[in-house]
Amino acid sequence: MAAARAWAFARRGLIDPEQSQSLDQDTASDFEALGVAVPAAEISEPEAFDVWRCNWRSVTAFLSLETQWRVAAGPAGFAFLGLDYTAAKSAFSGRSRRAWQNLLADLQIMERAALPILNGEPA
């Protein structure tokens, strides 16, 4: 779920409010170019998270489906409805039925984590 949340926030150009914020070296350099000194103690590496080996295929499958979201347009803008499972199944057609069912279950968990963020609902 963390990978799906991170992807959804990045897709919207936002930062996950549940993650601690810090200045990375690039941002500190931007401040210094503007004449604002940033103490070295304030600079840290961007936070990352690990993906367990058993989840790696599901995460990469989710990321490969970035363009396969069903979206509805309305007067308030776009609303993400969910992944296009037909397109997803087609993309992974070489898998056995059991492997597809396991992957689909994982994709649905990540989809549920990403949908509220993509639709701008409070985190």
Automatic annotation (TrEMBL):
Highest taxon of the lineage: Bacteria
What's the protein name?
DUF1799 domain-containing protein
Recorded source organism is Roseibium limicola
Q: What is the lineage of its organism?
A: Bacteria, Pseudomonadati, Pseudomonadota, Alphaproteobacteria, Hyphomicrobiales
